[in-house]
């Protein structure tokens, strides 16, 4: 085992070694043998319970203990529980043996535990469950710098590790391989909990615990946490385990825990859309968004950026799309800078939007707040296609997951050449945040054809397909 000695092997003092196994049976000289045998039987019994018990494992446990020659007194049972308590084994949250395939299969996060997998459904762990004998999840997980110093264990409710605190209610434990402050990655890791919420009679958490590479995180992008607040109907309480300090290493166990480490992985497109439908509906309720203005047939919204990946000539770009919109009766163009809109202002804006036009960037996550079938037009600076890797397609993915229509991307052919011809990484760091130009001809044709499609699509659409936001938003 290559787990770190410091945390995983620290256990309580061996105080009960001499008090057990004496009351009911006359022990011969081979005390030691019986001692060993007793421990063996104990684990056999535990194994049996784990295999077969469905209700409280402790009812069976009592019966077996009462019939056993090994134990007859209450003291002895306490002694046994104490041994179980000491036998709880903490393993590192981040298992360095799987560094090379951190996100495959059981992943390097809680690598000894497997997820529940049903066809088309979100993959998750839930504790306690029968398969692990009704044990609770416990964490020693305060470290914010190295996930292999944090650890986890499963423990029976009556034999929690020494000095453990038990937290009541449902705890969501999230693993995010990237960054909770990146809206796309934050949303992607959080949507799996919404999927669990949908399949679990709308159960909501008491608290959230966030990990990145096994390191504790205590905040996320405000856009994402407000969306979660709207979705789950209450403030998002992120656990920080107190400021504790180094010696405050006591374990924390959870009455009910749900662990997610695969984002939307394994979910069917239907299930994914269900999740985004729910979030959209709850966000609109939370922000008290009324119906749409009947006079507006097509709402076109340009989400603008300041600084990085902004337009070289914003007024020129706005002018082109404005002109196309003006040609269509009932079309209205709105130009917005999301960074100075509140969450609810964004929700209101997007609920009246049929076409969103924007540079690649976090503000595009707002697309999920449009009605289903909304159109997305995405713009990139020079160099991305060749050098940006798969990350450049995240808004294509988000569009398909949330039931939107990605209308393609425009890639600026113009820009400074890279001064490091054979160094893609250095070129990309230059291109990443470059400004975006425009092509009048292309933008006019593209804008006009997307707006026409929207009009056609909406004429065919059954208006009842877009139900107003109400009640539980389809979660039962
Ligand atoms: C439990 O807490 C007590 C008092 O803080 C401490 O002395 C003891 O070492 C702790 N036990 C374990 C196993 O951490
Ligand atoms: C086992 O014995 C204890 C105390 O001797 C008693 O409280 C408990 O009810 C018994 N359990 C069963 C299942 O008989
Ligand atoms: C931006 O575009 C407008 C309209 O095409 C043009 O009049 C203006 O000169 C441009 N501004 C710059 C700085 O190029
Ligand atoms: C919003 O942001 C834009 C661009 O940064 C700025 O010009 C504008 O003044 C801001 N508006 C408000 C109301 O803060
Ligand atoms: C602008 O777009 C048009 C239409 O797609 C294309 O024919 C033309 O080559 C583009 N111009 C530039 C400078 O890329
Ligand atoms: C979205 O469009 C598809 C076909 O393009 C249509 O079948 C579906 O009903 C539309 N959904 C909504 C909610 O309008």
UniProtKB/TrEMBL annotation:
<keyword id="KW-0812">Transmembrane</keyword>
<dbReference type="InterPro" id="IPR007657">
    <property type="entry name" value="Glycosyltransferase_61"/>
</dbReference>
<keyword id="KW-0472">Membrane</keyword>
<keyword id="KW-1133">Transmembrane helix</keyword>
<protein>
    <recommendedName>
        <fullName>Glycosyltransferase 61 catalytic domain-containing protein</fullName>
    </recommendedName>
</protein>
<feature type="region of interest" description="Disordered">
    <location>
        <begin position="1"/>
        <end position="22"/>
    </location>
</feature>
<feature type="transmembrane region" description="Helical">
    <location>
        <begin position="32"/>
        <end position="49"/>
    </location>
</feature>
<dbReference type="GO" id="GO:0000139">
    <property type="term" value="C:Golgi membrane"/>
</dbReference>
<dbReference type="InterPro" id="IPR049625">
    <property type="entry name" value="Glyco_transf_61_cat"/>
</dbReference>
<keyword id="KW-0328">Glycosyltransferase</keyword>
<keyword id="KW-0325">Glycoprotein</keyword>
<feature type="domain" description="Glycosyltransferase 61 catalytic">
    <location>
        <begin position="301"/>
        <end position="376"/>
    </location>
</feature>
<dbReference type="GO" id="GO:0016763">
    <property type="term" value="F:pentosyltransferase activity"/>
</dbReference>
<dbReference type="Pfam" id="PF04577">
    <property type="entry name" value="Glyco_transf_61"/>
</dbReference>
<keyword id="KW-0808">Transferase</keyword>
């Amino acid at each position: 085992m290559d787990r770190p000695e410091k945390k995983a092997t620290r256990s309580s003092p061996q105080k009960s070694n001499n008090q057990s196994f004496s009351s009911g049976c006359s022990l011969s000289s081979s005390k030691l043998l019986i001692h060993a045998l007793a421990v063996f039987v104990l684990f056999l019994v535990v194994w049996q319970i784990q295999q077969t018990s469905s209700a409280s494992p402790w009812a069976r446990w009592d019966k077996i203990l009462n019939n056993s020659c090994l134990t007859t007194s209450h003291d002895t049972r306490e002694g046994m529980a104490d041994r179980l308590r000491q036998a709880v084994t903490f393993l590192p949250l981040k298992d360095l043996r799987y560094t090379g395939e951190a996100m495959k299969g059981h992943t390097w996060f809680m690598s000894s535990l497997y997820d529940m997998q049903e066809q088309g459904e979100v993959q998750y762990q839930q504790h306690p469950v029968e398969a692990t004998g009704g044990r609770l999840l416990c964490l020693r997980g305060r470290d914010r710098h190295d996930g292999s110093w944090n650890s986890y264990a499963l423990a029976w409710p009556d034999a929690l590790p020494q000095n453990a605190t038990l937290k009541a209610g449902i705890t969501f434990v999230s693993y995010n391989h990237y960054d909770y402050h990146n809206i796309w990655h934050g949303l992607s890791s959080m949507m799996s909990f919404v999927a669990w919420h949908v399949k679990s009679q709308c159960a909501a958490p008491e608290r959230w615990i966030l990990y990145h590479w096994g390191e504790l995180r205590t905040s996320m992008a405000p856009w994402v946490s407000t969306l979660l607040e709207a979705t789950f109907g209450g403030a998002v309480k992120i656990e920080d385990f107190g400021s504790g300090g180094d010696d405050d290493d006591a374990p924390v166990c959870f009455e009910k825990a749900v662990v997610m480490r695969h984002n939307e992985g394994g979910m069917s497109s239907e299930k994914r859309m269900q999740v985004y439908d729910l979030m959209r509906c709850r966000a609109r309720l939370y922000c008290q968004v009324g119906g749409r203005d009947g006079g507006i047939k097509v709402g076109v919204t340009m989400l603008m950026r300041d600084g990085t990946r902004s337009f070289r000539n914003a007024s020129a770009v706005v002018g082109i799309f404005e002109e196309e919109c003006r040609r269509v009766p009932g079309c209205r163009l709105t130009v917005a800078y999301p960074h100075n809109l509140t969450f609810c202002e964004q929700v209101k804006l997007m609920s009246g939007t049929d076409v969103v036009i924007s540079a690649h960037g976090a503000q595009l996550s707002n697309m999920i707040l449009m009605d289903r079938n909304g159109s997305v037009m995405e713009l990139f600076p020079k160099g991305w296609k060749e050098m940006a890797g798969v990350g450049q397609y995240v808004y294509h993915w988000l569009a398909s997951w949330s039931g939107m229509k990605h209308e393609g991307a425009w890639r600026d052919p113009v820009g400074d050449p890279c001064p490091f011809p054979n160094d893609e990484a250095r070129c990309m760091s230059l291109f990443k945040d470059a400004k975006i130009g425009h092509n009048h001809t292309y933008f006019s044709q593209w804008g006009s054809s997307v707006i026409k499609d929207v009009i056609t699509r909406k004429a065919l659409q059954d208006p009842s397909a877009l139900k107003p936001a109400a009640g539980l938003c389809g979660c039962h």
